[in-house]
């Protein structure tokens, strides 16, 4: 009844090509933005910021990044954790080498550095595919973590090998460090999520995105119709690593504040982000957000429910959390292998017919 | 998502009853690859507070409320635990993880909540002039490294010239801590230091032990935790490395580290910062806590190395609360008062005897500038036949002339990076 194309007339090409062609979708998008920008910053506290919203936003960026590479371009990567580490260490080196630099530049530069590293590790993708590429990116993961542990220059020769983010301000407000207010850090992350999601959306539906998808669907056919696989694959690696690098940088500077590479950016992180896009839905921006929400928020909510509402011991709750999250992952993969995004799409199709299905 | 948020809100509201009592959060880890060490420590920590509740009705008439939160030794979950518990009036945090400690140092300092990182965490936090809210008494890693070398010096008639020592360490902030001290000591005493890193979680040590087998260092020192310890002891047994020359630090010397290797682990040595033995306080815990059904775990860990250390940590916290109550004249103290209490803490042999744990640790006083205690530790050896740790030495002192300049240097760097003004300048 409300969710339909009928009656929503488009009079220009720009209108016809917009991201949300259905009015209801458009208003829902504005409503989400309004809540995220206009309401949450006034009510956010440290717990909500640190336990739920900031990790959700940061992992959403990482998931979008990996989704560009894996979901849109079809190149499986297990190196996400390593690329996030590049972003984090690049941020650290930039912050300590150029103390005057503002955090937006630091984060963007960290993303660019990660993009270059990503392209370098993406070169093998021109020759190898599928599982073999996954193994090559796995090598990147282990190599990068090993390197950040091994070369003391990366952690400024500190005794413990930890890197910790010094305090940096923007417009007189601390963004990093312990004195940063929850709402400042939240808005800082939200700004990056908004810009990057907008960028990703427009990249994936433009010519570059179509080239990626052509390569994903059948690389030989794509080559025959004139897609340059070198350019398509390497741009996918570059853009993906740029996103992942920014996520890694934010994870270190804004969220955690102190990081140890093996623990924060180990292989488990690569799997976590990969699970996010598989559960959320490959090749879908909404899927990246849904997957990040599922993997970040669900464990916290479950834990609060079990220890708080049911009053269980936190150990039992943790064990149950493994069981429930694991079970839900299997459930989703069996019932809806295309992820949460597909469920959302089915809902929308049903909504179009509601309340008079044929 | 909105539904999830409502759930979370409901969960959180239910989780926070009225503010009262002395709130002690216990960021424990009873799951994951480090649970073997996390469980007994947490059991001891909680049992002692439960004992105070059952026997004395808390401290100074104020009940203690323990809030458990599972971190699984993971820093992100540690941060979440910290954020979810700090609002309840948490008095002191004891995360038992160097990684989580590094996260919490700036946060807790900004929030005004003290952090007690007993024998772990950031070593240079011993300098109270820089770290106002962090305490790592009674000992820290650099003390530990120095104590081991001092003991080896004594065994070798004061000369380690030309000897080779391998450091087998957990490749994390925790494991890397002693390297700088050992490097300086190696220059000073002329021994050769080999560094062998073991990656998290520590099950794969084949290469490292192959190298040890090839090079046959005179001593192997281990900075390990969790499954890494058991694997290392087993690997040492496999290559028939002389066990008495294999020395762990105080986090690599508990029963569960050596029992899996069976008789082959006989003779393995480790440091300990607390004495063991059958103390009167254990009987009280058995009677008043375990028999009343309030045991933190299954009650089987009582008297083990890490249980005793957890209980010792709880005792130090309780004594600091008592000191704070006396200083400020109120029973329901705030985290800021707790900090004052920790800074004025004084542990004497008479007091430890009175508490039913005679000689559990060394005597020490905390001052404004010195948050690190004496740094003394004992050496113990595993007796596989009797299945018990045998204490070999009395408390051994570290070489402060080596560790103190390092502490000052590292903390000065931290103060400069973070723009911290030095405290305690008037005394």
Structure write-up:
- The complex is a heterodimer of chains A (358) and B (427).
- Chain A is an all-alpha fold and 358 residues long.
- Chain A is built from 15 helices and 4 strands.
- In chain A, strands 1-4 form a two-stranded antiparallel sheet. A two-stranded antiparallel ribbon of chain A has the order 2-3.
- Chain A is globular and about 70 Å long.
- In chain B, helix 2 (35-56) crosses helix 12 (305-328).
- With 427 residues, chain B is α/β, with parallel strands linked by helices.
- Chain B is globular and about 60 Å long.
- The interface between A and B is large, with 44 and 54 residues.
Short recap of the structure:
Chain A is an all-alpha fold. Chain A has helices at residues 13-16, 23-43, 46-72, 80-97, 103-122, 130-150, 182-204, 207-217, 219-224, 229-256, 261-264, 267-280, 285-309, 314-335, 339-353; strands at residues 163-164, 169-170, 173-174, 258-259. In chain A, helix 3 (46-72) packs antiparallel against helix 10, helix 3 crosses helix 12 (267-280) and helix 5 crosses helix 10 (229-256).
- Derived from helix and strand composition plus strand pairing, the structural class of chain B reads alpha/beta
Largest interface: A-B, 44 and 54 residues
Tell me the series of helices and strands of chain A, N- to C-terminal: HHHHHHEEEHHHHEHHHHH
Please indicate the percent range of residues of chain A in DSSP E strands (runs of 2 or more).
Answer: under 5%
Based on secondary structure, the structural category of chain A is mainly alpha
- Number of domain modules of chain B: 2
Mean pLDDT of chain A: 90
Multimeric state of these chains? Answer: heterodimer
Sketch the major β-sheet of chain A: 2 strands, antiparallel
| Average pLDDT number of chain B | 89
> Taking Cα atoms only, what radius of gyration of chain A do you get, to the nearest Å?
21 Å
Ranges of chain A where pLDDT stays below 50 over 5 or more residues in a row are none
Approximate shape of chain B: globular
Quick one: CATH class of the largest domain in chain B? Alpha Beta
Provide the CATH superfamily of the largest domain in chain B: Response regulator
- How are strands sequenced across the largest beta sheet of chain A? 1-4
Main sheet summary of chain B: 7 strands, mixed
């Amino acid at each position: 009844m409300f969710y339909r194309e009928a009656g929503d007339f488009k009079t220009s090409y720009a209108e016809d090509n917009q991201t949300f062609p259905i009015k209801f979708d458009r208003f829902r998008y504005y409503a989400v933005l309004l809540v995220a920008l206009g309401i949450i910053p006034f009510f956010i506290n440290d717990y909500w910021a640190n336990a739920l919203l900031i990790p959700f936003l940061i992992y959403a960026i990482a998931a979008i990044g990996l989704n560009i590479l894996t979901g849109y371009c079809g190149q499986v990567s297990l190196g996400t954790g390593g690329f996030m580490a590049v972003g984090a260490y690049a941020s650290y080196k930039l912050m300590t080498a150029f103390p005057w630099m503002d955090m937006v530049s630091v984060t963007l530069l960290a993303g660019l550095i990660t993009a270059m590293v990503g392209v370098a590790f993406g070169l093998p993708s021109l020759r190898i595919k599928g599982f073999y590429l996954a193994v090559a990116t796995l090598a990147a993961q282990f190599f990068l973590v090993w390197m950040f542990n091994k070369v003391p220059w990366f952690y400024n020769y500190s005794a413990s090998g930890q890197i910790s983010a010094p305090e940096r301000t923007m417009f007189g407000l601390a963004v990093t460090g312990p004195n940063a207010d929850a709402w400042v850090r939240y808005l800082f992350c939200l700004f990056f999520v908004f810009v990057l999601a907008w960028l990703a959306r427009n990249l994936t539906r433009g010519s570059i995105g179509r080239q990626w998808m052509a390569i994903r669907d059948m690389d030989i056919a794509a080559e025959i119709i004139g897609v340059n696989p070198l350019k398509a694959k390497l741009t996918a690696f570059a853009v993906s690593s740029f996103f992942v690098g920014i996520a890694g940088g934010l994870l270190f500077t804004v969220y955690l504040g102190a990081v140890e590479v093996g623990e924060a950016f180990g292989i488990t992180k690569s799997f976590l982000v990969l699970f996010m896009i598989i559960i959320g839905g490959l090749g879908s921006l909404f899927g990246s957000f849904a997957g990040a929400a599922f993997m970040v928020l669900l464990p916290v909510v479950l834990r609060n429910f079990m220890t708080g509402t049911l009053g269980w011991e936190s150990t039992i709750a943790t064990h149950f959390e493994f069981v429930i999250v694991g079970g839900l992952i299997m459930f989703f993969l069996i019932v809806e292998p295309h992820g949460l995004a597909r469920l959302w799409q089915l809902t929308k199709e049903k909504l179009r017919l509601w309340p008079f299905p044929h | 998502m909105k539904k999830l948020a409502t759930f979370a809100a409901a969960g959180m509201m239910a989780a926070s009853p009225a503010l009262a009592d002395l709130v002690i959060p216990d960021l424990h880890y009873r799951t994951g690859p480090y649970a073997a060490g996390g469980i007994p420590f947490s059991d001891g920590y909680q049992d002692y507070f439960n004992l105070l509740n059952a026997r004395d009705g808390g401290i100074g008439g104020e009940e203690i409320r323990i809030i458990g939160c599972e971190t699984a030794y993971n820093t992100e979950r540690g941060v979440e635990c910290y954020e979810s518990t700090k609002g309840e009036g948490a008095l002191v945090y004891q995360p038992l993880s160097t990684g989580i400690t590094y996260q919490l140092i700036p946060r807790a300092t900004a929030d005004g909540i003290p952090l007690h990182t007993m024998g772990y965490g950031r070593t240079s936090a011993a300098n109270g002039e820089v770290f106002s809210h962090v305490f790592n008494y009674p000992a820290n890693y650099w003390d530990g490294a120095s104590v081991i070398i001092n003991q080896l010096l004594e065994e070798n008639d004061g000369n380690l010239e030309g000897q080779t020592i391998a450091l087998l360490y957990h490749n994390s902030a925790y494991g890397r801590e002693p390297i700088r001290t050992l490097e300086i000591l190696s220059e000073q005493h002329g021994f050769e230091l080999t560094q062998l890193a073991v990656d998290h979680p520590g099950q794969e040590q084949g290469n490292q032990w192959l190298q040890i087998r090839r090079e046959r260092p005179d001593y192997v020192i281990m900075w390990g935790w969790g499954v890494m310890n058991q694997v290392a002891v087993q690997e040492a047994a496999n290559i028939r490395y002389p066990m008495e020359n294999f020395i762990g630090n105080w986090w690599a010397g508990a029963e569960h580290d050596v029992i899996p290797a069976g008789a082959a682990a006989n003779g393995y040595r480790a440091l300990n910062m607390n004495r063991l033995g059958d103390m009167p306080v254990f009987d009280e815990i058995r009677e008043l806590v375990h028999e009343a059904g309030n045991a933190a775990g299954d009650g089987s860990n009582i008297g083990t190395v890490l249980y005793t250390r957890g209980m010792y940590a709880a005792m130090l916290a309780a004594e600091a609360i008592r000191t704070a109550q006396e200083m400020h004249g109120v029973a329901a103290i705030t985290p800021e008062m707790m900090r004052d209490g920790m800074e004025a803490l004084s542990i004497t042999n008479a007091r430890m005897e009175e508490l039913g744990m005679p000689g559990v640790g060394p005597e020490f006083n905390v001052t404004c500038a010195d948050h690190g205690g004496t740094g003394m530790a004992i050496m113990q050896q595993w007796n596989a036949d009797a299945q018990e740790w045998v204490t070999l030495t009395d408390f051994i002192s570290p070489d402060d002339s080596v560790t103190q300049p390092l502490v000052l240097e590292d903390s000065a760097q931290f103060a400069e990076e973070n723009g911290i003004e030095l405290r305690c300048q008037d005394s």
